[in-house]
Write a structure and sequence with these properties.
The complex is a heterodimer. In chain A, strand 1 and strand 2 form a beta hairpin. Chain A is flat and about 80 Å long. The N terminus and C terminus of chain A are likely disordered. Chain A has 16 helices and 3 strands. Chain A is mostly helical. Chain A has 2 domains: 172 residues, no CATH class; 215 residues, MetI-like fold (Orthogonal Bundle), CATH 1.10.3720. Chain B folds into 2 domains: 249 residues, P-loop containing nucleotide triphosphate hydrolases (Rossmann fold); 111 residues, Roll (CBS-domain), CATH 3.10.580. Chain B contains 16 helices and 16 strands. In chain B, strands 6-7-8-3-9-10 form a 6-stranded mixed beta sheet, sandwiched between helices. Chain B has a 4-stranded antiparallel beta sheet with strand order 2-1-4-5, with helices on one face. Chain B has a 4-stranded mixed beta sheet with strand order 11-12-13-14. In chain B, helix 5 crosses helix 7. The model of chain B has no long low-confidence stretch (mean pLDDT 86). Classes of the chains: A mainly alpha, B alpha/beta.
């Protein structure tokens, strides 16, 4: 029963991918603009490519259809993943091709960027990979290979300079050094916020669990913070911190001012608190009191109960909280650029200011990638930390 | 259900436990003999669990002393004290992240036993509680039924072979059918191991089934502390009287074992002489019912000598008895005997051994004699 449903469920996913893919063929594939801020004209596949190139696309989708019709059988699950990768790689190869063919000496400042159709086709490829990896399950080395080949090839294409005529790459090349310094800043800011969030949030959660009187005020605080929009919270930080730094000059020497990384960090920590505090509290809450009672009754010391019983039972839940905080912090750090804290948000806001979509994307893409990577890594970590006796049988997540 | 041969294992002296103004346990004293099962029973809130938890100092007494084997528990290091006492609670509290084997091995590991010794001990205990070691050792608690989990709980408490077991409503969360099985097995294991057991329950049937001694508590004080037979026969006051219920005479019967009350059976071997012998028994000894056995003394059925005359055939005279129908065993309780009598409508039942050989009989008169001992006329 379960298996049959699983396969048809996956077939639906594959079907969705293919529909999206076919649909994307009819949308504008690339956009051509006379300069970086001007609005451009979109080009369809049939405008952008000549006959032989078009054939590549047609063959690609014929292959996809064959895969779909045979889907469900073991070898085709693998083929499905391979096709997904091929689609993604092909899109970028073709984008590279078109950037070259469209360059002309009459328009030296012309910019070419990927349009909705090409993005959607990448998504379609990803859906196919995703469906096949799900079927194979992550333990299978083939699945790991399938999910890494595409991104790796794309990174390779970018780094060889094959795509250097693409608008977003041009934006990147102008600010290559800045890009890496903001990358480091972004990581340091969100990483520090999460680490300090753990340092404060975990004890807070334990305290809320152990001391009844503390429970309500603690959660009132972390919940309220969470409801403040990030932009507002960053703004709120400015006034008290600038007053403080004026009163106490030594604070300024430490780098604590109304703007910059100090207020940003404080706001990010405050945001990181809720998931960590709440999950710590919950993780202790869900431990059956009889488990702790019997552990103590058997002659375990307080430390032994903590290390052998409470920690292994609660750690996976606390880690899930840290995972949420980490993803959130990576996103929120983008906004922190507004008060001069740096990070990828710098490009986003510059792009907004100059009305250059590609610059916005230069800031937004890495943030998304970072968040997704952090999420995946933490997921793996949570799974590894979950004791076998606590895993639900038949859960493939 | 034997009385221990040793001395006093647990001695509670003037124990008081207060929570603020509320007195949960009010200056109580009692002792538990080595190797016996002492059951504390009473309505909820009577202080029975509180009393139990002060023994291994899960709760610290407000006043009073507790001695285990002559040593004051307050002088012992908490962890050392607890490692020497098996502790079983109602919701078992198996560690969900450990396998059954690891759960049982917790205390031996705390005591630094060697690996092979622990492995052997785990297997032995699983067998003792009636679970196949190879099938259960590597299971996780979430794969066990309630009854199985409680068996593991008992095995875990017995892991380091502690002389004392504290059991706090251990079978309270198990369904009635499984509860009875667990109680019977507990009695079997206890007969073998002779631990000193302090057992808290609110189920009188359970207490009567397993106790060597019953302590009835109410509002933090001990109302009556006696052997179950006496508690059931002569409740000390109205509270105990009401608590043990109007069926106490019946309950009391489960304290008496067939082997103490059975008589020599009158049995005749199946064969041609059967009817002659039956007639003789009736005329000379005025015996009405006799057991009919085969050459190996195994029960075939019974015969009413009153209906035998020259014209009766053997087939007509002998009422065959199906396997297990009216027979009881030496270790059955008189309560079971009475149930058989009422169920089958007979006044005498045969006692058979494992091979179905008739070794005795018990009659309704024997049971009546015992129930008459119950002081039925307790007055306020």
């Amino acid at each position: 029963m379960d298996r049959v449903e699983g396969i048809t469920g996956r077939n639906k996913v594959v079907l969705t991918g293919i529909v999206i893919g076919l649909f994307s063929c009819g949308l504008k594939f690339v956009a051509l603009k006379p300069n970086r801020i001007a609005s451009g004209t979109g080009l369809y596949i049939w405008n952008a490519f000549s006959g032989s190139d078009l054939l590549v696309f047609i063959l690609l989708w014929v292959a996809v259809l064959i895969v779909f019709l045979k889907a469900g059988k073991k070898q085709f699950v693998l083929l499905q993943g391979i096709t997904g990768n091929v689609i993604i790689i092909t899109v970028f190869l073709m984008v590279g091709r078109v950037t070259r063919s469209l360059q002309s000496p009459e328009m030296p400042f012309a910019r070419i960027s990927m349009a909705f159709g090409s993005w959607l086709m990448v998504l379609a490829g990803y859906i196919l990979i995703h469906a096949s990896v799900r079927t194979l399950t992550l333990k299978n080395p083939k699945a790991v290979l399938l999910s890494l080949v595409g991104p790796f090839a794309v990174v390779l294409l970018f780094s060889t300079g094959y795509l250097s005529e693409l608008s977003i790459v041009k934006e990147y090349l102008i600010r290559r050094d800045r890009f890496f310094s903001e990358f480091v800043r972004h990581l340091v800011l969100s990483g520090t916020a999460v680490l300090l969030g753990i340092a404060i949030g975990t004890p807070l959660g334990v305290l809320a669990f152990r001391r009844k009187a503390f429970e309500k005020p603690a959660f009132f605080f972390v919940n309220t913070v969470q409801t403040i929009p990030s932009l507002a919270l960053f703004g709120i930080m400015i006034a008290p911190l600038s007053i403080l730094s004026q009163r106490f000059p030594f604070l300024r020497d430490l780098g604590i001012k109304g703007i910059g990384s100090a207020p940003a960090l404080i706001a990010l920590i405050l945001y990181a608190l809720l998931p960590i505090t709440r999950n710590t509290y919950t993780s202790l809450r869900v431990i059956d009191p009889s488990v702790v009672e019997s552990a103590r009754g058997m002659g375990m010391s307080r430390l032994q109960v903590l290390m052998r019983i409470e920690a292994p039972l609660s750690l996976p839940i606390i880690m899930s909280g840290i995972r949420i905080s980490a993803v959130q912090a990576i996103g929120n750090t983008t906004v922190a650029a507004l008060i001069g804290a740096g990070g990828f948000g710098v490009f986003v806001f510059q792009g907004l200011g100059q009305a250059v979509p590609d610059l916005i994307m230069l800031g937004a893409f890495p943030v998304i990638l970072l968040a997704v990577t952090a999420d995946k890594l933490m997921q793996i970590l949570v799974k590894a930390m979950t004791p076998r006796g606590l895993r639900y049988r038949g859960n493939h997540d | 259900m034997d009385f221990g041969t040793g001395g006093i294992m647990i001695k509670v002296k003037n124990l008081t436990k207060k929570y603020g103004d509320f007195t949960a346990v009010d200056n109580i004293s009692f002792t538990v003999q080595e190797g016996t099962v002492c059951v504390i029973i009473g309505p909820s809130g009577c202080g029975k669990s509180t009393t139990l938890k002060t023994i291994n100092r899960m709760l610290e007494p407000t006043a009073g002393d507790i001695f285990i084997d002559g040593k004051n528990v307050l002088d012992l290091k908490l962890e050392i004290l607890r490692r020497g006492i098996g502790y079983v609670i109602q919701y078992v509290g198996l560690f969900p992240h450990m396998t059954v084997g690891e759960n049982i091995a917790v205390v031996p590991k705390l005591l630094d036993w060697g690996k092979s010794r622990i492995g052997a001990r785990v297997a032995l205990l699983l067998e003792m509680v009636g679970l196949d070691p190879s099938a259960y050792r590597d299971k996780y608690p979430n794969e066990l039924s309630g009854g199985e989990a409680q068996r593991i709980g008992v095995a875990r408490a017995l892991a380091a072979d502690p002389p004392i077991l504290l059991m706090d409503e251990p079978f309270g969360a198990v369904d009635p059918l499984n509860r009875e099985v667990l109680q019977r097995e507990f009695v079997r294991i206890q007969r073998e191991l002779k631990k000193t057991v302090l057992f808290v329950t609110h189920d009188l049937d359970e207490a009567v089934r397993i106790a060597d001694r019953i302590i009835i508590m109410k509002n933090g004080t001990i109302v009556q502390n006696d052997i179950p037979e006496i508690i059931l026969a002569s409740p000390k006051n109205k509270f105990v009287h009401d608590f043990v219920g109007s069926d106490r005479a019946l309950k009391r019967l489960s304290r008496f074992i067939v082997s103490q009350y059975m008589h020599r059976p009158v049995s005749v071997e199946m064969g041609e002489k059967l009817l002659n012998e039956a007639t003789q028994l009736r005329e000379q000894k005025h015996i009405r019912y006799i057991w009919v056995v085969d050459s190996g003394k195994r029960l075939i059925g019974w015969l009413d000598t009153g209906i035998v005359d020259k014209n009766t055939s053997i087939e007509d005279a002998v009422t065959k008895v199906a396997q297990g129908k009216i027979t009881v065993r030496e270790d059955s309780t008189l309560r079971e005997v009475l149930a058989k009598m009422l169920g089958e409508g007979v006044k005498v039942v045969p006692v058979v051994d494992a091979d179905r050989r008739v070794i005795g009989e018990v009659s309704l008169k024997d049971i009546e004699k015992i129930t008459e001992e119950v002081d039925a006329s307790w007055k306020e």
